[in-house]
Amino acid sequence: MSVAMLHAPSRASTSSSSSMIPVSRQNTISSHDGSRSVRQSKRMSVTALYLSMSAKEKELEIEDDLARAQKALRELKAKISSQSKKNFVLEKDVRYLDSRIALLIQNRMALEEQNEVVSHLDDAADLQEGSFPNDEKTQKYGNLLYMLQTEPRHIAHLCRLVSMAEIDSLLQTVMFTIYGNQYESREEHLLLTMFQSVLTYQFDNTPDYSSLLRANTPVSRMMTTYTRRGPGQSFLKTVLADKINHLIQLKDLDLEINPLKVYERMLSDKEEKDGSLPAHLPRGVTAEQAAENDEVQAIIRPRVETLMSIANSFLDTIIEGLEETPYGIRWICKQIRSLSKRKYPDAQDHTICTLIGGFFFLRFINPAIVTPRSYMLIDANPAENPKRTLTYIAKMLQNLANKPSYAKEPYMVKLQPFIQQNKERINKFMLDLCEVQDFYESLEFDNYVALSKKDLELSITLNEVYATHALLERHSAELAKEENSHLSQLLAELGPAPDQLPRKDNRAINLPLYSKWELPIDDITNQLDVTQEEIYFMEAKSTFVMILRSLPPNTSITRRPLRLDRVAEAAATTKNDSVMVKKGIRCMELLSQLQELGVIDKEDGFALLRDEVEQELVHLGSIKDKVMEETRKLDEVYRTIRDHNTYLVGQLETYKSYLHNVRSQSEGTRRKQQKHQVLGPYKFTHQQLEKEGVIQKSNVPENRRANIFFNFTSPLPGTFVISLHYKGRNRGLLELDLKLDDLLEMQKDSQEDLDLEYVQFNVTKVLALLNKRFARKKGW
């Protein structure tokens, strides 16, 4: 293979590159299989390099079932990566509004602040495609972003310098743009290299062992955000969703074990039942007095057993999901173990496991258990009882992973048997998490592949580019201390960072990435530490596999054992397919060259090469089912992410409409115009509202629901009247006045139930309905 071929500036054919590097190997699962030898790994990587460089001629197109399945999987992964970024941006906007809405409800925001909030969200639709204003800036920013992507130490250093106020903007660019292809091995490995640098600094500069990985810092937020990417979300969906959904159905299962709360609830129940309290049950007791009460102890005892049983079932599921755990999360656990042993050489395994648990449980598992809706594991916020149970489960798992402390909640001591029964197996699980292979060799080869393509691009917005530039400039004194460093030179060439554009002017661009300091690869065999014979062998193997995948199955040519000379001859004499002919002729040349070099022998049917080709074909056939299964799982993840996007968009629209209304009321204009203008009524049947999820529980008998309907009216902006009617009756059965402020506050406090006596409404769905019917007409 010539150096000229190595530098051919064309995009690799997806079909040919996947023929030898199946999806499961391209990603970060089986490429880290410890059973594969270094030589085999090197061969596979050289094959990847060879296949990424398809000279100017058209590559052989492979259209078998595996190729089609792999293509569909790649497209699905790209959609998940793109949608994850959109959701991250929307969640950032919703968090921003959550903090501002509270002030609006309390009338504690000036008109100028209202205008600023509204302008922050104007024109928040999907961005238009665009390009940089001039080619010179395109080149310079392409150099800068290429260096940031390929030299992760710069981003790692920046992560240590930014404030909590700056971290969201940086996270968006790092996690979902610079390393945004969440299933591409090169970008994933570069991102993990960045984490290694961040973690090393954390261990080297955190004197207090107990605060390692636990403090709320930009770095800890970055680690949490990493777990929210596609692979982490897929794991949570696979491992936890069924458990959590089953638990939240048990709305009446009260497992409260705080003695004071149990005592107070007991008093309330007795008073409701008997009309008064017995003398031996006074109000206002202390937590200690409540804990000593015999009746309270009798209530708590079975609850403790039930909690431990549920927690055990959660733990079983998590441990059984070891192999489902994303490689990147396991690799971070491995780095924590390695860095712990380096800093604390005498540390016991159980001590190291508490640090691993500080990441795996504290940052990954437990947030999803406590707030499953925000992790897209359930469709609505859980009721009070299951919500409290989930909190207990998370606390129990965290106490299991860490050394438990009961100083703040002494009643949790009753759950100590759960810790004692499971401590040994949780430690084994956390150490097993660390048993994954490193990726440095494959990353080296991946970077060679990237260099050979010469067409790397980054999908990024202008504001992301400018924000990254501004952060680097702000912290340049620390980041670029040496005047002659590449980063210093690039920042000097770029000059001052431009201001952020208004949202309506922001554009999504495809930024070409390349380095102005790139050196040519003069001798590929020296660079990759492989022989010319090795390269000939891998080229022959990959080309034969491509040919065989393109030939009809079950023919004399494809029958085992393969006759490689006949396969090459059949390809070389193919009619009306010049690419196949060239491949066949090349295979003939390679067989001859390899025989002259003494690598293979015609006398034994080229057995060494033949066996590897046959093994690869068997392997490719066996991974088809794995590809299909992965596609099925990720398709479900994608649907979940899309549903979450719809929810976030609805929430954002509700907030925006409310902000516009408050703004117009403050100005005193629209309120005067609409003072006497009533909107509605809009009529909805019981069936309609049930179907749309607005009614989540109904006490109306089944045989009467067809005669029930609701009228929604807005007599004043921000005020609504919901009336319940029965066909044939003039007067309504029920009328309820609602304030938009109250609904928003209920949503903010995670109160999902709006009780209308006959039916229970879902607060979020009611807001969405009001937004759809009233907000877009004349304003609330």
Descriptive notes:
By secondary structure, this protein is an alpha+beta fold. The protein has four domains: 1-129 and 522-667, no CATH class; 131-227 and 457-512, GTPase Activation - p120GAP, domain 1; 229-433, GTPase Activation - p120GAP, domain 1; 669-775, no CATH class. Helices cover 62% and strands 7% of the residues. A hairpin with a 2-residue loop joins strand 6 (708-716) and strand 7. The model is unreliable at 1-58, 108-112, 521-525, 667-674 and 776-780 (pLDDT under 50).
List the uncertain runs. Answer: 1-58, 108-112, 521-525, 667-674, 776-780
The fraction of residues assigned to DSSP E strands is 5-15%
Gross geometry: globular
**SS element count, helices:** 33
How would you sum up the major sheet?
4 strands, antiparallel
For the CA atoms, what is the radius of gyration? 31 Å
Mean pLDDT: 79
Helix content: 55-70%
The oligomerization state is single chain
Secondary structure: number of strands: 10
Alpha-beta classification = alpha+beta
Strand arrangement, largest sheet? 4-6-7-8
**How many domains would you count in the coordinates?**
4
Distance between the termini: 70 Å
Region (Disordered): 1-40
Domain Ras-GAP: 186-402
Organism: Lineolata rhizophorae
Keywords: Coiled coil
